[in-house]
Design goal:
Ribo_uL30_ferredoxin-like_sf; RNA binding; 14 helices; Ribosomal_uL30_euk_arc; 7 strands; Ribosomal Protein L30, Chain: A; five-stranded mixed beta sheet
C-alpha cells in the first residue's frame, strides 16, 4: 500500500503535533498614482531617484523635497480672477507706441541688371509668339474694317445705294412666278377631280379604276458585278436594259416612260426596284438631288439660268417647268430626263430586305407601284 510522505492529521493528533499553517495567497501589486507624483508634475519638480537606504544623506534630501512640494497648493477661483484683473491693468497702463515712433526702414534698391560683356540681350518673349500676335491684330483690324464697310453699304443708302434689279430680270421673275402658279392650280384641279370621281362612284355603288400611270421610277439595287453575271446567264437584251439608266455604281435611279420600257423592265426585274412616283417624290428628287448635264459635267441645279440655257428651246426655263414636264410626261419628256443626271440616292434607312426576293414575297426587287414613294422618302 502506497503511503503518503506527509503525515496525516490523525497521526499528528496522536503524536501531539500541530499542522503547519497554510501559506497566504499572493496578491497582484497594482501601482497607484501617488498624490506626490501629481504634485511634483504640477510644480515641475524632478522626481527624486530611488537610491539604496544604506547611503547617508538620502533620507534628508527626500524629506526636504517633500516639504517643498507640500507647500504648493492650487489657486482658488478668486485668486485666478484677481490675477487676470491685475494683468489687464498692467497692460492698459503700458504706453502704446505711436506710428511716428516706429523705426522707418529704408527701401532696399533693386539690384541693377548684370550685362555680360560681348553677349546679345535675349528677348523676354519668343519671336514666333510676337509674330503671331502681330498677325492676329492685323487680321482682327481687317475683319472689323470689312464689317463696317458692309454695314455702311447696307444701311447708308446715300453713299451706297442698293442695286436695283433690271427690267428684264423683273419680267423674267414674274413670268416664272405665273408659270408656277398655273401649275399649282392644275395639280389641285386634278386632285379635286379625282376625289369627286371617287365620291360619285361610291354613291352609285360602283368602283372606279384609276388610270394607268405614264411614269415609272427605276432604281438599280444590285451592282455592276451582278450585271455581268446576268448577262452571262440570260441574254444580251438584259444587259442593254441594265445599261439604260447609264449609272456606273448603285443605287441608280431615273424616270422612264412606262409604255416604251415596260417589257425591258420585266426582263431585268430581279435586279431593279421600280414603281409609280407621285408629285411630291418628283419635286423632292429634283430640288434635293437634282444635277444637270452641262458641258458633259455633273453640275448641281442652283438657279434657273442653268436650266434656261440648256432647255430654253424646249420651253423649259425654270425648275417648276422641269418638274411639270416630267410629272405629266409631256412632249419634251425625253429632253428633260436627258438633261438630268441620274439621281444618286442613299441606302434606305434600316437597309434593304432580301434583295433576292420579290417585293410581293417580302423582298426588295420588282414592281412596287405606288409603294415606291415610301422607299424614296427613306432614301432622299
Amino acid at each position: 500500500m502506497h503511503r503518503s510522505p506527509f503525515p496525516s492529521s490523525r497521526n499528528m493528533v496522536e503524536t501531539g503535533k500541530t499542522a503547519p499553517a497554510a501559506a497566504p495567497a499572493k496578491r497582484l501589486r497594482v501601482r497607484k498614482k501617488k498624490p506626490l507624483d501629481k504634485a511634483l508634475r504640477k510644480a515641475k519638480v524632478a522626481k527624486p531617484k530611488r537610491v539604496s537606504a544604506g547611503k547617508p544623506g538620502v533620507a534628508s534630501a527626500t524629506l526636504k523635497t517633500k516639504a517643498k512640494v507640500l507647500k504648493i497648493r492650487p489657486k482658488t477661483r478668486a485668486e485666478i480672477a484677481k490675477a487676470r484683473v491685475a494683468k489687464a491693468a498692467a497692460r492698459a497702463a503700458k504706453p502704446k507706441p505711436k506710428p511716428e515712433d516706429k523705426p522707418k526702414v529704408a527701401p532696399v534698391p533693386a539690384p541693377a541688371p548684370v550685362k555680360a560683356d560681348g553677349s546679345k540681350k535675349l528677348p523676354a518673349v519668343p519671336e514666333i509668339l510676337l509674330k503671331r500676335r502681330k498677325r492676329r491684330v492685323a487680321t482682327k483690324k481687317h475683319k472689323i474694317a470689312a464689317i463696317i464697310q458692309e454695314y455702311w453699304k447696307l444701311y447708308n443708302f446715300s453713299l451706297y445705294p442698293p442695286p436695283r434689279p433690271s427690267k428684264l430680270s423683273r419680267t423674267k421673275r414674274m413670268k416664272i412666278f405665273r408659270r408656277a402658279e398655273k401649275y399649282i392650280k392644275e395639280y389641285r384641279k386634278g386632285e379635286r377631280q379625282e376625289v369627286m370621281l371617287i365620291r360619285e362612284a361610291k354613291k352609285e355603288g360602283s368602283v372606279i379604276v384609276p388610270a394607268e400611270s405614264k411614269l415609272a421610277f427605276v432604281m438599280r439595287i444590285r451592282g455592276p458585278h451582278d450585271q455581268y453575271v446576268l448577262h452571262r446567264i440570260t441574254c444580251p437584251s438584259v444587259l442593254v436594259c441594265c445599261r439604260l439608266p447609264q449609272q456606273p455604281q448603285p443605287p441608280p435611279a431615273v424616270n422612264m416612260s412606262t409604255k416604251a420600257t415596260i417589257n425591258m423592265l420585266r426582263i431585268a426585274e430581279p435586279f431593279i426596284a421600280w414603281g409609280y412616283p407621285n408629285l411630291k417624290s418628283i419635286k423632292q428628287l429634283v430640288y434635293k438631288r437634282g444635277f444637270g448635264k452641262i458641258d458633259r459635267r455633273r453640275v448641281p441645279l442652283t438657279n434657273n439660268e442653268m436650266i434656261e440655257k440648256s432647255l430654253k428651246s424646249k420651253g423649259i426655263i425654270c425648275v417648276e417647268d422641269l418638274v411639270h414636264e416630267i410629272y405629266t410626261v409631256g412632249d419634251n419628256f425625253q429632253a428633260a430626263t436627258n438633261f438630268l443626271w441620274p439621281f444618286k440616292l442613299n441606302n434606305p434607312t434600316g437597309g434593304w430586305r432580301k434583295k433576292t426576293n420579290h417585293f410581293v414575297e417580302g423582298g426588295a426587287f420588282g414592281n412596287r407601284e405606288d409603294q415606291i414613294n415610301v422607299l424614296l422618302s427613306r432614301m432622299i
